[in-house]
Design goal:
Elements: E1 10-14, H1 21-30, E2 36-40, H2 43-52, E3 57-61, E4 69-76, E5 79-84, E6 105-106, H3 130-138, E7 143-147, H4 148-153, E8 159-163, E9 171-177, H5 183-192, H6 203-214
Parallel strand pairs: 1-2, 1-3, 6-7
Antiparallel strand pairs: 3-9, 4-9, 5-7, 5-8
């Protein structure tokens, strides 16, 4: 390696609410010589980082521009409504958007849900961020509908949340620039898809194959003319031993 070359590293962007720790742990076990750098970014920032080359791949929220990015959907999140603990919604297990018709439903500018029609009544102003909206819920200004991971991320002791059964959901995906599918991206794809280290895809598997190819192969036993395996030669009889009639007893 020349002095101008940088050591290999893998840069993974991830959006708020996503927990990449499991996959990072597996990466560090399989590729200890390749550092994985985590970049926690907003939804818009993560897409810009991928597009501009500041990140190799990202755990992002769908949709993404499929003309630019490849994406592997990973899971869908439950959508919940965040309310004060003494709110009437806290007394039930789940609600529908119709149940929120009389509520002021806050709609932050960084909302990640794609609504065809917003539930409830709109607030006078839209909060700048989901975190700001949570503060307004705590102040009794309204309620907030978000993916469950964001409700957990901004958890407060005076708030709770309940599933909204007919609300749109947010899907998490692994995404990367379509024209930059590197070996390290393939390695991370294998990890999130649950491939083992001995999988037929990915660099570890390729290294195992190369190692196996370099090792001398064991020669199989030569078959006999009839196509079967040769029988071991019969043990020789001890010289001098004779078989005869048994002696009579006197």
């Amino acid at each position: 390696m020349t002095g101008s070359e940088e050591p290999p590293q893998f840069r993974l962007a991830y959006v708020p609410g996503v927990t990449p720790s499991k996959w990072v742990r597996i990466w560090n076990e399989r590729l200890p010589d390749v550092p994985l750098t985590l970049l926690q970014l907003s939804v818009a920032e993560a897409r810009d980082a991928l597009r501009g080359g500041a990140a190799d791949a990202g755990l992002v929220r769908l949709p993404v521009d499929r003309t630019v990015f490849s994406a592997i959907p990973l899971y869908d999140e439950t959508t919940v409504v965040v309310v004060p603990k003494d709110h009437v919604v806290a007394a039930v297990d789940e609600v529908t958007t119709e149940d929120l018709a009389d509520e002021i439903v806050l709609h932050p500018l960084d909302d990640v849900l794609e609504w065809s029609r917003l539930p409830g009544r709109p607030a006078f102003e839209r909060p700048a961020t989901t975190e700001d909206a949570v503060e307004l819920v705590a102040a009794g200004i309204g309620v907030l509908v978000v993916p469950q991971s964001l409700a957990r991320l901004h958890h407060r002791k005076d708030l709770t949340y309940r599933p909204v059964t007919d609300a749109p959901v947010s899907s998490i995906a692994l995404s990367w620039p379509e024209d930059a599918t590197t070996d390290m991206v393939e390695d991370f794809i294998g990890i999130v898809r649950g491939r083992t280290v001995n999988s037929t895809r990915g660099r570890p598997a390729a290294q195992d194959k190369a190692k196996a190819k370099a090792e001398p192969k064991k020669q199989p036993k030569r078959p006999d003319a009839a196509g079967g395996r040769r029988k071991p030669p019969a043990a020789k009889k001890t010289q001098g031993a004779r078989r005869g009639k048994p002696r009579r007893r006197s």
